[in-house]
Amino acid sequence: MKIESRERDGAVVVALVGEVDLQHSPTVRKHLMDLMFERRPVVVDMGSVEYIDSSGIASLVEAYQAARKNGTRFVLAAVSQPAMRVLQLARLDKVFALADTVEAGLSA
Amino acid sequence: MRVEERPQHLPAALADDLDLIAEMTADFARSLDIEETLRLGLAHISSRMEAEAASIFLMEPGTGDLVCRACWGPSDVTGLRLPKGQGIVWRAVNRNATELVRDTTDDPDFAHQIDNNTGFITRSILCAPMAVRDERLGAIELFNKKGGGSFDADDRRVLQALAASAALALINARQAADMAEQKALKHELSLAADIQRAMLPPERPPEFPIHGINLPARGVSGDFFDVVELTNGKIAFAVADVSGKGMNAAMLMSKTASLFRCLAKRLDGPGAVLAAIDSELAETSSAGMFVTMIAGILDPATGTVVLANAGHEPPLLCCGASLTRIDEGMPPLGIVPDLFALGCPESAIELNGGALYLFTDGLTEAGSTDSMLGSDGVARMLAPHRIRPAPDRLRAVVAQVDEAGLALKDDLTMLVVEDMRNQPALNRQYQARPASLTLIRHDLGQILHQLGISGPVIPDIVLAVDEACQNVIRHAYGGGEGEMIVQVRGDHDHVDVRLIDFAPTIDPASVCPRDLNDVRPGGLGTHFIREVMDDVEFLAPPPGTGNLLRMGKRIGGHENRKP
Fold first, then answer.
1. What is the count of structural domains for chain B?
2. B140: domain CATH number?
3. Is B520 domain-assigned?
4. Is there a contact between A53 and B473 if contact means CB atoms under 8 Å apart?
5. How far is A65 from chain B (nearest CA, A)?
6. What interface predicted TM-score (ipTM) does this complex get?
7. What do you get for the CA distance between the two ends of chain A, in Å?
8. Nearest C-alpha of chain B: how many angstroms from A84?
9. B360 — phi, psi (to 5°)?
């Protein structure tokens, strides 16, 4: 999998591309937590997530909790169908701030 | 090298001699071609030692004759051959002592014939043998001191020193050449081993009914196995062991393997194949060499095996708890022509859901001589690994034999023929590590599709199994090394996934899903498994394993079936 990070409109858009599984979720977690440490607003572009497991979801949960504590923005945008299915299974689709597109996530 | 300064207290003549020895020794040490150096050095030695002529004789390997390899002076005797015992040279070599002949007319061993042939008149001779320890290499011979005198005791000491240093250089050069030759031989052996490996059948997916493994004791093997798919859906197979070890066994093995490959597709039945190979081998094989071989044909549709055995270790049929040795058979192949003229008897075996193991004595006779395994031992070695998919099972058994990486005494080959009729659609072993998960998801997705399932239930099942595998990796093995087996049975209506590991058995009660109202990282995996699958239970782990988790899923709804 790949993590592509870019600055946009004062926020960081983090695109997760491919399969976020046990092998790769530690990298995702570190990447997101570093941004949380810098108190950066983050939009996670999940349009190209082909697969995500509980460890990947856990990384998102941890970042989400840190953002809440910081009072910064943390939005999951353009969530792909396979990722949405897993969020629903975890009943987290009601917890995370979701946006249909990255643009919508940035202006939320 | 040149010694520039002469120590004041040495007499001039001795200093000259030391110079000569030092120069020649340095030349020898530098030289890559000692004979060439000797040839070039001979002129130098002769002029410094004031000889009218000189020759170098080297002992010819094979004949043991002394042959003149270099010479300096008015007549050329290069190539002159001195059979054992002739002349002063041989005397020096035999006594391994420097010979000083002040006047040849006084010496009965002097070979006048050579002077008669060349016209050179030999008055005096100084001959020093070249030898290292007990190995005689040849001699350096000087003729006639210039000015009419004779060689003296000083000359003798100098030539002796030169000869000793030349001998060492010769031996070193020969050893270097031997090493280069050995290296080349080793390279050729590894090429031969490559070709042999290429003759083995390709590794097939674990769900294929026949698998083999071959471990040569040296680079090349005297064992082989082959698996050939026939056009009628049946599968022909063979295991053979050529008598002896090394290159000749390897070559006979290659021949037998080629014959089998060719005949298995053309002849009707393993008996006919063995009889044909026997008549070919008996006609052409070299004395004292023979081949023990089992050939067979499996009908995967019925689980029936037809076997023919020519002098090979009896195969072992493992069916549930019962073990049967299949003892019938003929003598080995290639011993006497016409032994198989009346054909080779065949026996029919029903696998009944079990497996037939064929092996060479590299397996049964492994270990020290007092602990030969025998077929009971093979059964004992198999027992803890029977749950593993066939290729992994063979590797596990062989690893046990080859424990601690000890060199095998004999080539080792093992083949398993299984009744796959009631076997799982997927039965694979994976390393319990995160990097395996991509492959597991891929294999699982593919097999679910093959079972006739489609739609969103596939990613759901894949997620549940992935999560269960993660639990094995993270919790059962706790991050340590290990393996896990994924088995999938079912059809378009129902899927049964079993996950087996070899970790310490865990208490099922300790595995519980988390409370979803508590939003926190971790603990979601077990929830996903229970959410997706209809029934999830730990079953009694099979012998040799740690845990067995069964996960069942009913495939309801039209959207999950392929049209």
1. 3
2. 3.30.450.40
3. yes
4. no
5. 8
6. 0.92
7. 27
8. 12
9. -100, 170
